[in-house]
Structure formats: structure tokens, C-alpha cells
Design brief:
The complex is a heterodimer. By secondary structure, chain A is mainly α. Helix content of chain A is 73%, strand content 0%. Chain A has helices at residues 7-25, 29-49, 53-77, 90-110, 114-117, 129-136, 141-162, 167-172. In chain A, α2 runs antiparallel to α3 (53-77). Chain A is globular. Helix content of chain B is 75%, strand content 0%. Chain B has three helices and no strands. The longest helix of chain B is centred in the C-terminal third of the chain and has 31 residues, at 61-91. Classes of the chains: A mainly alpha, B mainly alpha. At the A-B interface, α1, α2, α3, α4 and α6 of A face α1, α2 and α3 of B.
């Protein structure tokens, strides 16, 4: 199965899975964030291998650049960089591993023959800005405008949530 | 396609493994920030599969979907972290197992 695969794909997949495992298992949240950034970089490299150059750059800018910096800022502002998480019992770990493993088993079994049914019809230059922009601004114009409204709502919501409120203090404490 | 002997099924397996790792993290961890990161990991697994299928089938719609998933993930991360900051300010904890006051 792994015999005739190209080396770059194997190395990148190895890095991706290893750093994703470190995100999940690391005790220190800062290490989790850094490992997740590494995961996003290797996923961006996968996008380059898949001829999706625009998505590779956007993935780096949006995920590794913006979202992960947001996570890092929250971790540092809340001073959570030490290991404060109580140890869960092994039973939880076993149950979670069994659940995730069963999902893995079911999806791989369901998609075992999926590769044969995909009609291979590669088109050059599909992942460049020109082709994607033409699709985005013609057929997907309404969702594009709606995502602007979504961002406005998210911005208003996070400002409202982040504001200091004296009333809420009695409710949760 | 850059590599000829690379099949779509390899990308299916890779993104399934990534999604399962993210699911394992959501089930196993208690720190709310790590839970949000595991959700981002699962979203990225789906993005990878969308992109692979889009490239193999020669259809740009999958990559547009990945673009929209990134938009929603950015909004979700901002609102989720704002909720987390508010919870931490009120309870001094980010452990989700303490947030059980709605339990009947």
C-alpha cells in the first residue's frame, strides 16, 4: 500500500499526523498551539502538492497567521501556559480512543472503493486566483456577501462578550 | 496532478486519520482552548479532503467551499475565544468539566 507512493507525500503525511497527535497529547497548551501551527504548515504543503496554490497561501495567512495568533494571545493573556489540567483517568482515554478508532474504521471501510468511482478529470490552473475568483464572484456571490455579514455579527458578538460586565459575575461565581 | 501514482484514496485515508485524531482530542481533553484547537484540526481534515476531491475532479467548487469553511472557522474561533475569556474571568478556570451548572 505504501510501496509506490511518492516520498514528499509520505514525509508530509508523517509530519501532519505526528504533529496532530502532539496537539492532542501535549500537556502544555502552548506546545499544542505550536504543534497545530506545524500541522497547518504541512497541510498547506499538501495543498501545494494538490495544485491548490491559492488555498495554500490563504491557509497559511488565515490559520497559521491569524487564528493561531489569536489562540496564543488568549493563552498568554489568561496566563494558561502552565499545566493546569487535571489528569483524566485512563478509562476516559480508552473510551475516547475506542470511539475515535471506531469512527476511523467505519469511514475507511465506507470509502474503501471511493477512489475508483471518482471521475478523474484534472484541469490545469484550477487552484489559481483567476479561476477561483471567477467562480467566487459569479456563482458564489451571494454566499460571499453573506460571509461579510457573518463576520460583522462575529465581531459584534465577540466585542459584546469580551466587555466587562458586573452583572454576570454573580451568576457564575 | 504532480504525482501519477497518488490516488484519491490516500488523501481520504489521511484526512480520515486527521479527523479521528481531532475527535479523540475533543473526547479526551478538558481544557477548553485545546478543545477549540481540536475542532480546528477536524475542520482542516475536511478542508484537505475537499481540496483533494476538487483537484482530482477538476471542479473549482470544492476549493470555494474550503474558502467558506475558513471564513466560518475564523468567526467561530473569535466568538469561541471570547466566550472562553468571559468564562475564565468569571470562574478562573478553563476546564469544561466544571461548567455543568445547566445539568438538570
Amino acid at each position: 500500500m505504501f510501496n509506490n507512493l511518492p516520498i514528499p507525500f509520505l514525509v508530509l503525511s508523517f509530519f501532519t499526523i505526528l504533529s496532530a497527535l502532539y496537539v492532542v497529547t501535549s500537556k502544555n497548551p502552548i506546545h499544542s498551539v505550536l504543534a497545530l501551527i506545524l500541522t497547518f504548515f504541512s497541510i498547506s504543503a499538501h495543498y501545494v502538492l494538490l495544485n491548490a496554490q491559492f488555498l495554500a497561501i490563504v491557509n497559511l495567512i488565515v490559520y497559521a497567521g491569524a487564528i493561531m495568533v489569536l489562540f496564543l494571545f488568549v493563552l498568554m493573556l489568561l496566563n494558561l501556559n502552565k499545566d493546569a489540567e487535571p489528569i483524566k483517568s485512563n478509562l476516559w482515554g480508552i473510551a475516547a480512543a475506542i470511539s475515535a478508532g471506531l469512527l476511523l474504521l467505519v469511514i475507511t471501510a465506507a470509502f474503501q472503493k471511493a477512489g475508483e468511482n471518482v471521475v478523474k478529470h484534472p484541469v490545469e490552473g484550477i487552484g489559481l486566483v483567476k479561476a477561483l475568483g471567477q467562480t467566487l464572484f459569479t456563482r458564489f456571490l451571494v454566499p460571499f456577501e453573506l460571509s461579510g455579514a457573518l463576520f460583522l455579527a462575529a465581531m459584534v458578538g465577540s466585542v459584546l462578550l469580551g466587555k466587562r460586565d458586573k452583572v454576570n459575575k454573580d451568576l457564575l461565581a | 496532478m504532480i504525482f501519477q501514482n497518488l490516488d484519491i484514496s490516500h488523501y481520504i485515508y489521511l484526512s480520515t486519520v486527521l479527523f479521528s485524531i481531532g475527535l479523540f482530542g475533543v473526547l479526551f481533553r478538558r481544557n477548553a482552548i485545546v478543545l477549540l484547537m481540536c475542532i480546528e484540526l477536524m475542520l482542516n481534515a475536511v478542508n484537505l479532503l475537499f481540496t483533494a476531491l476538487s483537484t482530482y475532479m477538476g471542479d473549482a467548487d470544492g476549493q470555494i467551499f474550503v474558502f467558506f469553511i475558513m471564513v466560518v472557522a475564523a468567526a467561530e474561533a473569535a466568538v469561541g475565544l471570547a466566550i472562553l475569556v468571559m468564562v475564565y474571568r468569571n470562574t478562573r478556570k478553563t476546564d469544561v468539566s466544571f461548567l455543568d451548572q445547566l445539568k438538570g
